[in-house]
Amino acid sequence: FRGMEPNDDFLKEVCAELALDAPIITGCLRGGRSLRAASILKEAGFTRVVDMRGGWDGELGPLGEVVYPGWSRRGLPETRE
Predict the structure, then answer these.
(1) pTM as predicted
(2) Which residues are part of the catalytic machinery?
(3) Which residues contact 44 (CB under 8 A, 6 or more apart)?
(4) Per-residue model confidence as pLDDT tens digits over 31-66
(5) Residue 33, class by beta-carbon neighbours within 10 Å (0-12 exposed, 13-18 middle, 19+ buried)?
(6) Hey, which bits of 1-81 come out as E strands?
(7) 12, exposed or middle or buried, with CB in 10 Å at 0-12, 13-18, 19+?
(8) Which residues pair with 18 in a beta bridge?
(9) How far is CA 11 from CA 38, 41, 48, 50, in A?
């Protein structure tokens, strides 16, 4: 098994919390899962969905090289609690 298991209740949980016109930014570690999440939300009728390309760390190429830097590699602001 590779990767994380999808949350079968993802769409139901988002629909219970947010209106279809709520602004939503999806993000994850590398960008792949959040891109899938954004697609699911758009297909369900959410109209203001943006995926944070590259995620937190960055998209990786076939040899493990960063091909698109994520949030942290760009030096963007962060807080930790």
Answers:
(1) 0.82
(2) 28
(3) 11, 15, 20
(4) 889 999 999 999 999 999 999 999 999 999 999 999
(5) middle
(6) 24-26, 49-51, 58-60, 66-69
(7) exposed
(8) none
(9) 11, 7, 15, 16
